[in-house]
Amino acid sequence: GSTVLDPPHISFGYPRLPPAAARDAIAGVDAALSGTPPLSLRFVGPRRFTPDARGRVVLYLAPEPPEGVLAIGDVISTVAGFSRAFTPHCSLVRLAADADPAPFEAVAAASLPLQTTLDTIELHIRDRGRWRHEHTIKLTGQP
After folding, report:
1. Residue 130 — pLDDT band, cuts 50, 70, 90?
2. Which tens digits make up the pLDDT trace of 100-124?
3. Using an 8 Å Cβ cutoff, are 131 and 26 in contact?
4. Model's pTM, two decimal places?
5. 42-67 pLDDT, tens digit each
6. Is the separation of the CB atoms in 19 and 55 below 8 Å?
7. How far apart are CA 143 and CA 140, in angstroms?
8. CA–CA distances in Å: residue 127 to residues 55, 65, 68, 124
9. DSSP at 26
10. Residues 122-130: contacts with CB within 8 Å, 24+ apart?
11. Given CA atoms 65, 88, 138, 79 in this order, what sign does their dihedral have?
């Protein structure tokens, strides 16, 4: 079936770190992002990722400008020690292989562009097949 990705979230990467290594990286990521100001973002789209091996398509919104999100992603990937090969995005829904994306795109497009401020980063760890919230970073620096 299709899955609404709730809550909608900006993905900075999708590392495959073991839980212990991910937990070890959190303090370093927090320290490295201290002083980072909140980001004013505009989301556009919706856009589609290439279907996965099961034919599922993820619809997402793209942040503009992407540079701030990319910079935060660089910090996270450098500190955590994984490759930053990702598309900055706000995931909306993962559609089943047989689902028509057009109605979902029409619903999302009706609310776009969306202006928001990114002022919180939640770090999650994938452990035993589930994503678990581990730590929250507040972006409080001055631009």
Report:
1. confident
2. 999 999 999 999 999 999 999 888 8
3. no
4. 0.80
5. 999 999 999 999 999 999 999 999 99
6. no
7. 9
8. 25, 32, 28, 9
9. H
10. 123/22, 123/26, 123/29, 125/17, 125/19, 125/22, 125/23, 126/16, 126/19, 126/22, 127/19
11. negative
